[in-house]
Amino acid sequence: MKKIKLYTIAAIASLLPLFSCEDFLDLNPTTQPSETTFWKTENDFNMALAGIYGQMRSNIYFNEQFGLFDALSDNMYAGHNEGSSGDICRGNIDSNMGGYISDIFKNAYSAVARVNMFLQEVEKNTTLPVEVKNRLMGEGLFFRAYHHSWVYLLYGDVPVVNKVLTMEEQYILKESAETVYELIMQDYDKAIENLPDITYSESAGHITRGTAKAFKAKLMLQHAYKQGVPDIQEMTEIISILESIEGYSLQPEYSDLFEDSKQEDSPEIMFSVKNLAPNAASGYDMYMTNWLMYCPLRNLIDEFELEGEGEWKGSAAALSINEEVLNGTDDEAAALERAKLFEGRDKRLKATIFHSMRPFPEIRAIVGETDFTGFGCYKYLQRNLTLQKGDLLDGSVSPQDMIHMRYGYVLLMIAEAENEVNGPTQKVYDAINSIRRRAGQNELKAGLTQDEMRHKIRHEWRVETALEGLRYFEMKRWHILDEIENIKDPKFVDYQPKFEEKFYYWPLPQSEIDKAGGILIQNPNY
Which keywords fit this entry according to its UniProt record (predicted)? Predict the structure, then answer.
């Protein structure tokens, strides 16, 4: 009922003229609801706020394509070169590109514009109860920080838009990346101060204090690393913030996190883009099956351990695989050989990846698409609904929510920060072992060095969150994005990524620089 209520309001709110602007810094819609008829009651503000939440759902990069950020890393390839991700990984990056390079920039500022108008009206209002006004301000400030964080992470020096702009100031100068970060932190801090301290499942799908703390810490973790070296003082602060989050725990069964019927009351999910079929749904199942956009690379499959513990690579089971057959032209023989890769492995492998164009052997195999790597994304697929109805493979009717923050991330962040500050303390072991126990893996052996624990933590980040859109940002903060050049997929031999140091920040879209008439300056080396 919570999800239905939220998205009934969101559907109505999406019709408001308030949410109709197009261009990146064309920040003021030409038509607005009249102040004599709108912005009066709490319901008016809730409808406008639902539109801000609904924009996350309507933006495919935050919904069904959110996991495709992994295609910018060593985890996967995106079929159809979706979002120009294949071009980005091949080093063909320029300011005139579509997809990620242009769309993230434009969408983020479009979202900020809506939030600024909302915040302006909340601040002006003198009739709302104080606790309601504080909550609305908190949610609006969270989203302004959230969307600014995307352009900060991907482009570095960017404009900061913290008010409704006039027609005379539609384009503004860039701020340094450090200034942008500081202003984002201010918004997160104000949001945390104003938001209710309840869990996400108790909030009817709204941002809460714990959620905002987790996102603040997540951005701090990115900021704390300089050329891959962490700032110990900042890491210490991250631990304190994360340990102040209360009320969450791991979902007992890992795969239940991604099953629609198990998400609403999840003890682990801290924020998600909520979908509700058929009117507020996504095309996730279709993207991962009939369109085969999510194509995991072999090196990701090899990262998953043997069941219990132990590296797969170099094991007797790994050495028994006939690579020639597995990557050969006999599809049936290849499928039988490929199935051996999934035997006796960390159970998160089967919960994350399928192989040989057969996500569900009980129904038809995927047809009409190129099987680039031999693997596909199983995570988030709605197995029961697909088997019952069959239509999830063919349209934008997928009901599952797209997770953007969960308590598993919090535990991994605590482990990473604590290990860098104090080495492999019991706090690190407790956080990592709770993740491993849930997966059915053995606890880590005592006595690991800091370097050995760092390797284990980074391994858990990769396998626990595979195809959830985080790997690119993990590699970015650890300053190892150049390692994508080492990808040599045995089946997808034509894929040869290239990387240059300047790619740590993308170019600003040339179309926006042209519109700005000299106010926006392109990033260096583009």
Answer: Cell outer membrane, Membrane, Signal
